[in-house]
Amino acid sequence: MSNAVLEVFDASLQKTQVWLNDLMSELGWEEKPQKACLALRTALHALRDRLTNEEAVHLGAQLPILIRGIYYEGWKLTGKPVKERHKSEFLDHIAAVFRDDDKVDPEKVMRAVLKVLARHISEGETENVKHLLPKTLQELWS
Predict the structure, then answer these.
(1) Whether the Cβ atoms of residue 94 and residue 38 lie closer than 8 Å to each other
(2) Angle at which helices 33-50 and 3-27 pack, to 10 degrees?
(3) Domains of the chain
(4) Which of 20, 21, 39, 98 has the fewest CB atoms within 10 Å distance of its CB?
């Protein structure tokens, strides 16, 4: 494998680590990288599935390669976007994954992921994604 390819993977790994560090800091999970990775994956999947296919691709293009792979994992285009209009339905994705951990607050997780996302993608993309969501979900971007 060429050095150029290795450099691309190394840069993506470093960017992913920055995202995870930010998320662990937001959630107070500094010693829980696997938990933070699961939270990131689950929240990104919930968001991706609520977006139009076109907007989901635009968002995916701004993610580091490694996170992009997690984002697209298991994605099926049919039936998208899902029509979850209530915050509780949207947060149920996180609640289901962390159902055995009563210390995890799904809303806090989603807010933290969205905060990290907004910190690392363009402001224009953040606004595009935000405005595709119903008002009750837009409020999670505070």
Answers:
(1) no
(2) 90
(3) 3-141 (1.10.490.110)
(4) 21
Structure tokens at 12: 């993506």
Categorize the per-residue pLDDT at 1 as very low, low, confident or very high, splitting at 50, 70 and 90.
low
Residues in the chain: 142
The average pLDDT across 102-128 equals 96
Angle at 94 between CA 89 and CA 96, to 5 degrees: 85
- Which candidate, 71, 61, 65, 62, places its Cα nearest to that of 12? 65
**Which region holds residue 76: left if phi is over 0, alpha if psi is between -120 and 50, else beta?**
beta
Question: Using one digit for the tens of pLDDT, what is the confidence trace for 19-53?
Answer: 999 999 999 999 999 999 999 999 999 999 999 99
Q: How many helices (H) and strands (E) does the chain have?
A: 8, 0
| Contact in structure between 44 and 31 (CB atoms under 8 Å) | no
Asked whether the whole model's pTM tops 0.85, one would answer yes
DSSP 36-52: HHHHHHHHHHHHHHHS-
Q: Which residue has the higher pLDDT, 103 or 9?
A: 103
119 within 8 A of 22, measured Cβ to Cβ: yes
